Every structure is written in C-alpha cells, then in structure tokens.
What we know:
By secondary structure, the chain is mainly alpha-helical.
Amino acid sequence: QFPSGNTGVNVGSEADPFVISLENACSESSLKTLGGLQTCHSKCQTHLCCFTTDSKLADQNCSGRIPAGCSAYEPCKKLVVPPAGTELVASPTALSTREETEKRVYDACYFG
C-alpha cells in the first residue's frame, strides 16, 4: 500500500524519501496553514485509520492490520493528535475538543 513500492523503513543511514516527504508535508509549520493541512491530508488520507483514538471508532483503527504502513505514516498522526502546545489553523469553526477534532477528520476522510 505504499506509493512506488516504498516500505516506509529507513535504509542504511538514509531516511526513506517517502517518509521525508510526509514529514515535510505534515511538519508543525506546514500544519499552521490551510494549504499545509490540505497537502498533509492528501498524502495521509489512506492511513488516518492508524491513529484513531476515539473509542467509538475503535473498530476502524487499522494499526493492528497494517503496522508497517502505520509506522511509515507516523507523521500523519499530527492531523489527528496535534503535538502538545500546537494550535492548528484558527478559524470561526475552531474545534473545542480533541475528540471533536478526531471525529471531524474521520468524517471528512471517509464521508467526504
């Protein structure tokens, strides 16, 4: 399930270019802009199931089924669980709780 056959693991001392691309697209500075959020989401949408923490969506969590894939997509976790002290793009529809954020991300990814 990796683009171009990438496995998402480091080879030798060089990091996998695919993982580096995800790290750049989903960096804290990138996630502070709408364009950055969109870029990160477009690269991550197929693996957001790896980071579902909402107990109501536990059956949707795929981290046990595709652990190598989830490991490679670790930078995407910031879309669902932002690093402590990081605020995502502020907007009139800013979300008030982590659970609400996770639900909206899930809904947007799976229901358009």
